[in-house]
Amino acid sequence: MVQMPIIALDFPDRVYAEQFLNKFQGEQLFVKVGMELFYKEGASFINWLKSQGHYIFLDLKLHDIPNTVYSAMKVMACLGVDMVNVHAAGGSKMMEYALKGLEEGTSEGVDRPKLIAVTQLTSTSEEQMQSEQMIDHPLKDSVKHYAKLAFEVGLDGVVCSALEAGEISEATNKTFLKVTPGIRMAGDNSHDQSRIVTPSDARKLGSTHIVVGRSITQADNPLHAYERVKFEWGLK
Ligand SMILES: O=C(O)c1cc(=O)[nH]c(=O)n1[C@@H]1O[C@H](COP(=O)(O)O)[C@@H](O)[C@H]1O
Questions:
Q1: Per-residue pLDDT, 40
Q2: Is 68 helix (H, G, I), strand (E, B) or coil?
Q3: Which of 104, 113, 210, 226 is spaced 20 to 30 A from 55 at the CA atom?
Q4: What SMART domains is this protein classified in (predicted)?
Q5: Cα–Cα distance between 236 and 230 in angstroms, integer?
């Protein structure tokens, strides 16, 4: 799986998204399409991104009963994206069904999209998790627990903060994907994120992929910001 930074295309519609992508002069990117853009533009935008040669993480964070997630994943597999996700809090049976749906929906000869599970959102702090989710453990333990569940079910990896990547590697293995949002350059605004890490620290801590949104999409010069993130992440 390519290791370029994943750019979160958090835009209201394809006009904004295409204006943004035009700044990259045809460079092949790894982009993330989330709920906002997908609910607005649907599969046709995914097809267009594919026709432009971009790698795609379709971030819809499924979380429902196992059968519903199974059926949704079967349909999502037809989109031919590279990565999709669920919430680990849906449970191991839901994750198992998600994987089954994805496998059954993927055409022969085509690579199945990677399936990863969100552990604890990077916007969640330990205090919030303990008081609101009533989890009486350190946040790291909750993240590690969800990662182990996802690993045992056969998922390809998790979404977590880079702060937890090392412990997840120890509890699973090095190739298990640690896709880490909450990435900020030193001194940048953290916005609604709680567990933030710089691109270079994410590399040192063991992230396999970083997800970067506003630090690039809202920069005065997005191309320059992307180059800086890539450089810090260790890619030219
Ligand atoms: O699944 C995700 O992509 C995700 C999980 C998570 O725990 N935290 C998180 O921020 N994200 C996504 O990653 C992106 C981060 O955006 P920025 O905070 O602008 O860099 C957003 O599109 C979020 O939806």
A1: 98
A2: helix
A3: 104
A4: OMPdecase (SM00934)
A5: 6
Name every residue whose Cβ is closer than 8 Å to that of residue 96 and which is 6 or more positions away in sequence: 66, 153, 154
Residue 212: helix, strand or coil by DSSP? strand
Instruction: Give 126 Cα–ligand 1 centroid separation in angstroms.
Output: 17
The answer to whether the annotation marks 60 as part of a ligand binding site is yes
Mutational test site, ligand 1, from 33, 122, 184, max ligand atoms within 8 Å of CB: 122
Tell me the CB-side half-sphere exposure of residue 86, using CA atoms within 13 A.
34
Catalytic residues: 59, 61, 64
Confidence of residue 26 (pLDDT cuts 50, 70, 90): confident
Domain parsing of the chain, residue ranges: 6-233
- ipTM of predicted complex: 0.99
